[in-house]
Structure formats: structure tokens, C-alpha cells
Amino acid sequence: MPSRRASPIPPPDFPRAFRTARVAVGISQEAFDTVSSRTYVSIIERGVNAPTLTKIDALVRVLGLHPLTVLTLAYASSPSSEETSKVQERVAAEIASLGLAEFSQNSLPRGKTRSPK
């Protein structure tokens, strides 16, 4: 099994990635009113608060994008296809190294924990 020690992962810059995607799509902060307030969107873009995965999903749906698109931009050093491909290739390799054919029967529903043996 390959070592889990890969090159260091740079810290994500979700605020930059989200704002970059929002501006590129051409949507104002006010357009998120069905899922959030303009103030909250501004707070996220300034990096004051970090949104939950559920909130990220809701916000990027307004942009018409997949959450992984914005998360890829957050981990890429630039929006170039070369940099985003590096992130995507790393993720694909890490998933492959897990050796999963499907989700395990041992996977637990959200909020559940395993009992100690």
C-alpha cells in the first residue's frame, strides 16, 4: 500500500476561491438570498467565518457549480488548468489508494458512532 505521506497540502483559500468563482459566473452577493444573506456571503469572502460543507454545497449550487469545483480552486495555487489538474490528480490517486470498490457496509450514517469492542 502506498505511503499516506505525500507532499504537504497547502492550506485552502476558500474565500478567494469562492469570490473568484462568484465573480467569474457574474453573480452578485445579493443573489444568494435563497440560501444565505449578503452579509454572510461577504463574511465568507473575507475569511471571517468558514462555511460548513452543507453551506458550501448550498452556496455553489447558486453558482451552478459542483462543490468540488470551488474546493479545487481553494487548494490550487492558481486557477490555471495545470494547477487545478495537480489537485484533481492528487485526489484521484488518494481515492484509488484507499482500494475501495464501493462504500463499505461498515460505513455509518451521519451522526452514528461505533461501539467500542
What is the oligomeric state here? single chain
Number of helices: 5
| Proportion of strand residues | under 5%
Q: What's the mean pLDDT score?
A: 87
**Backbone CA Rg:** 17 Å
Structural class computed from helices and strand pairing = mainly alpha
Which outline best applies?
globular
Helix content: 40-55%
Give the termini separation.
26 Å
The main β sheet shows up as: none
Task: Report on this structure.
The protein has helices at residues 14-25, 38-45, 53-63, 67-75, 81-97. It starts with 13 loop residues before the first helix and ends in a 20-residue tail after the last helix. The chain is an all-alpha fold. The model has no long low-confidence stretch (mean pLDDT 87). It is built from 5 helices and no strands. Helix 1 packs across helix 4 (67-75).
Describe what is shown at a glance.
The chain has 117 residues and is mostly helical.
Question: What brief labels describe this structure?
Answer:
globular; mainly alpha; 117 residues; 5 helices; single chain
Write the layout of secondary structure elements.
Elements: H1 14-25, H2 38-45, H3 53-63, H4 67-75, H5 81-97
Helix pairs in contact: 1-4
